[in-house]
């Protein structure tokens, strides 16, 4: 699974101490909701907005649910 992080996603990861492994787990195991331009995966306290291009997962943003 190739993960490509946008600048915004990297900022959010640093801000909330989110790891790439947590993002991968959310994509693999979380529930998915279709969005206009991609998907939203929800797993535990984490939401990951992403889109799939070829075999790459482009992470647009990540969010911690309080």
Task: Describe the structure concisely.
The chain has 66 residues and is of the alpha+beta class. The chain is built from 2 helices and 5 strands.
Question: How would you describe what is shown here?
Answer:
There is one protein chain. With 66 residues, the protein is α+β, with helices and mostly antiparallel strands. The chain has a single domain, classed as YaeB-like fold. Helices cover 30% and strands 48% of the residues. It contains two helices and five strands; from the N terminus they run E-H-H-E-E-E-E. It has a five-stranded mixed sheet. A hairpin with a 2-residue loop joins strand 4 (46-53) and strand 5 (56-64). The longest helix is centred in the first third of the chain and has 10 residues, at 7-16. The model has no long low-confidence stretch (mean pLDDT 95).
List the main descriptive attributes of the protein structure presented here.
66 residues, alpha+beta, YaeB-like fold, five-stranded mixed beta sheet, 2 helices, 5 strands
């Amino acid at each position: 699974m190739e993960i490509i992080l946008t600048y915004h996603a990297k900022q959010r990861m640093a801000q909330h101490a989110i790891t790439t492994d947590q993002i991968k787990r959310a994509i693999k195991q979380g529930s998915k909701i279709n969005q206009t331009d991609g998907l939203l995966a929800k797993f535990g306290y984490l939401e990951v907005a992403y889109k799939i291009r070829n075999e790459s997962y482009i992470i647009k943003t990540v969010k911690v649910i309080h």
